[in-house]
Amino acid sequence: MAEVEVWRGGVATWECDAMGHLNVGHYVAKSMEALAGMAAELGMAGAFAPAAAATLVVREQHIRFLREARPGAPLAMTGGVLEMGEADARLLFLLRHPDGALAAAFQTRVAHVTAREAQAFPWSDRIRRRAAELSVEVPEGAGPRSIGLADVETGASLDRAQALGLKRTGLGAVLAADCDAFGRMRTEGFMARLSDAVPHVFAGRRPGTGEGRPNVGGAAVEYRLIHHAWPRAGDRVEIRSGSAGGDARIRRLVHWMLDPDTGRPWGSAEAIAVSFDLSTRKLIVLSDEDLARVEADTIPGLGL
C-alpha cells in the first residue's frame, strides 16, 4: 500500500474567511487539483483538459476537517485508492501540515465517464493495475465520525423544502467562470455556495454569542456532499437549509441545492458545525439556555 503526493501549496490570505482560516470552498478546490494529480498517477494525465475523451466526475465527498489552516500555512496532499468498482472508485486524499498533522481528510467517490456526455464506462486493465499499486486505508481518526457513508436516496426537492419550512439561504445563477472545461459547474463551486449560505442559517446570531463572548465564529468539522446533477452556465441555483439537531457542542446542518425552475436537486449536503472562540480558537460548549434556543429550530427527520 502506498500514498503518492498529488498536490503541494499553501494558504493565501484571500482564501481565508472571516474566521481567519482556510475557507471550506478552497479546501475542496485544492482537493480537485489533487484529483487531477491522482488521475495522472492512475494513467489519465490530461483528464480535465478541454480535449480529454474521458474524465472523472465527483459523485460525492466526505470531508473531515482536523486542524485549522491559517494564512501562510504550507500544505501538501497525498492520495490513494480505497476501492474501485466497474466504473467508479473511492479515493482518499490527506492534506497535511509540515509537521505531518492532518489538516483534512477527503474520501472522494468518482465516476469514470466520457468527458462531455458524462456517461460511465469501465476502467481499463492498465488503470486497475495501477490502482492496486496505490491501494491505501483510512488512517485512524481520519474517517467518518458523525456522518455515515451509507447510500441514500435523496428526498430533496423545492416542494418538500417549502413544506418543511427550510430557509432560503442562497439564490443565484451559474456563470461561465464557475464551470469546468466541459461546461459543468465545478465541484468546489458547490461548497463555496454552501459556505456563503451558512450565515443565513443562524440569521446573524451564531450559537454561543449570548454568553458574554464578543468574538464568536463558526467552523465545519465534517461534511458529506452528494451531487445529483451538474448545473451549467445560465442555470439557476437555490439553497434551502435547516438544522437536523445536535447537542451542546455541535449542530447538524442540512443543505439542499435546488433548481428553482424545476424544483429538482442539484446536490445535497450534511455538515457538522461548531461555534468557537475566535480569541482562544477553542470550541464553545453551549449553555442550557442557548442550546434550547437552537434546538427549537430543529426540523425532525431532515436529511440528505
The overall strand count is 11
Largest sheet: 11 strands, antiparallel
Distance between the termini: 33 Å
Amount of beta strand: 25-35%
What is the percent of helical residues? 10-25%
Order of helices and strands: EHEEEEHHEHEEEEEH
In terms of quaternary structure, what is this?
single chain
Q: What is the radius of gyration? A: 19 Å
User: What general form does the structure show?
Assistant: globular
Taking pLDDT < 50 over at least 5 consecutive residues as the criterion, the unreliable ranges are: none
Mean pLDDT: 93
Label the structural class: alpha+beta
With helices defined by DSSP (H or I, 4 residues minimum), what is the helix count? 5
Q: What does the model show?
A:
This protein has helices at residues 24-41, 125-133, 158-164, 187-201, 288-295; strands at 4-10, 54-65, 74-84, 88-96, 102-114, 167-173, 216-227, 236-246, 251-258, 265-277, 282-283. It is an alpha+beta fold. The chain starts with a strand and ends in a 9-residue tail after the last helix. The model has no long low-confidence stretch (mean pLDDT 93).
Would you spell out the secondary-structure blueprint of this structure?
Blueprint (H helix, E strand, L loop, with lengths): L3 E7 L13 H18 L12 E12 L8 E11 L3 E9 L5 E13 L10 H9 L24 H7 L2 E7 L13 H15 L14 E12 L8 E11 L4 E8 L6 E13 L4 E2 L4 H8 L9
Antiparallel strand pairs: 1-3, 2-5, 2-7, 3-4, 4-5, 6-8, 7-10, 8-9, 9-10, 10-11
Helix pairs in contact: 1-4
